[in-house]
Design brief:
elongated
Length: 111
């Protein structure tokens, strides 16, 4: 009779730990998304007539996305760090930068 492999053999013991700054960057990479929903909400309430407020929110979101991208990449390059969280933060930051850039370009060309 064949024996089943035990589930506990899938564990890998390592000295790697989660980076505190990497986790913080991952959490902060959600803020530009929340700012995007806030900008959509304000625009809806004012029938699309809130360009200054939305512009300020957008600039703050882009700056924060670049900052979280920088911190995520810096933390992912460290040796004894679990890299999944900083890489996820970097990917989300790039998506937010691309999204906000698209919003600005569409605003500039008038669509």
């Amino acid at each position: 009779m064949k024996r089943r492999a035990r589930a506990d053999k899938n564990y890998k013991f390592t000295e790697r730990k989660h980076s505190g700054a990497g986790v913080l960057a991952f959490v902060c990479s959600f803020v530009p998304l929340l700012l995007f929903f806030y900008a959509v909400y304000v625009s809806f309430l004012r029938d699309g007539q809130a360009p200054e407020k939305i512009g300020c929110v957008g600039v703050a979101a882009v700056i924060l996305a670049f900052l979280t991208f920088y911190v995520s990449v810096r933390e992912a390059r460290k040796e004894k760090v679990i890299k999944k969280v900083p890489i996820a933060g970097a990917v989300l930051s790039v998506l937010m930068i691309a999204g906000w850039t698209t919003v600005y370009v569409l605003g500039w060309i008038g669509l």
